[in-house]
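new request in #modeling-help
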Amino acid sequence: MVTIESSIKVRLVKIGELAKLTGCSVQSIRHYEKEKLLATLRRSDGNFRLYDSATVDQLKFIKHCRSLDLSLAEIRQLIALNQQPGMGCEDVNRMIDSHIEQVALRINELQDLQDKLMALRTSCASQSTVKECGILQTLSVSRK
Amino acid sequence: MVTIESSIKVRLVKIGELAKLTGCSVQSIRHYEKEKLLATLRRSDGNFRLYDSATVDQLKFIKHCRSLDLSLAEIRQLIALNQQPGMGCEDVNRMIDSHIEQVALRINELQDLQDKLMALRTSCASQSTVKECGILQTLSVSRK
DNA sequence: CTTAAACTCTATGGTAACTATAGAGTCAAG
DNA sequence: CTTGACTCTATAGTTACCATAGAGTTTAAG
Ligand SMILES: [Zn+2]
Ligand SMILES: [Zn+2]
Ligand SMILES: [Zn+2]
Ligand SMILES: [Zn+2]
């Protein structure tokens, strides 16, 4: 923790403490900076990154988005939108809708996969040899 | 297509035709070779890869496995097992079981995600501005 | 004041399973 | 024998990081 004198006193934290405050890793934070999701406004004399509490909140926002599996590109877009408070939010809605759709698609794919895997699994009688293993035999036959 | 004279005549295909026969991309095939899943037994005088029908089958096996989302490492293991016909096939069963479990876990994760996304989506009244968008507001609040 | 632990810096390489180039060489038909 | 289609190797890019190396900084204790 570092306290800097200017017109106001601001509590600044180094990257390790920011990581603890938000539950992000230090590498992630540097990565977000490289990807322009998070700015480092100050550096110490020795070139250490210093963050204020607004940045802590910004990173929490990012983390929240990531927990919903939004991509860094999508988060970047949300941040940009957030800076246009007067605009309509249809783009936000569209993004979330499309995300929901992607997730639904993926769930369906995986469910199909699961069904196929279960079917495959039943083709082996547990006490079999490799030569007679129904799983390997099934895998060797191509499907249409 | 190339026909080579040895003790037997063998029909050999180049990589492009192998790709068509199996539905794999040419790059995938070369990638599988680099990853030791598929051997190139012959080359033309000009160094083109030439494949026989056994290799076509081998690639179909790989493709079938990939359609079940088995990793290349797992497929490599299955191929190795296939070459030990006398052994018990418990390892095969274990691999499929563990795969099924992974897929189930992933489905659950995605379902959780889906629920959160739907809840988030309801927080926006469609005709809103960015400043008042419930989605952005929700994302700005960290959860415990 | 000095030293050592703990922290941070940049840069680089790795992950998985490919896709997409670039630039050069090969093959098959006309 | 030319030309277009094909193939070759090598390299970079994809995604969101993690891991490491080697160097410098900070801070607390001695
Ligand atoms: Zn998305
Ligand atoms: Zn079996
Ligand atoms: Zn697996
Ligand atoms: Zn909205």
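bot summary: The mean pLDDT of chain A is 91.
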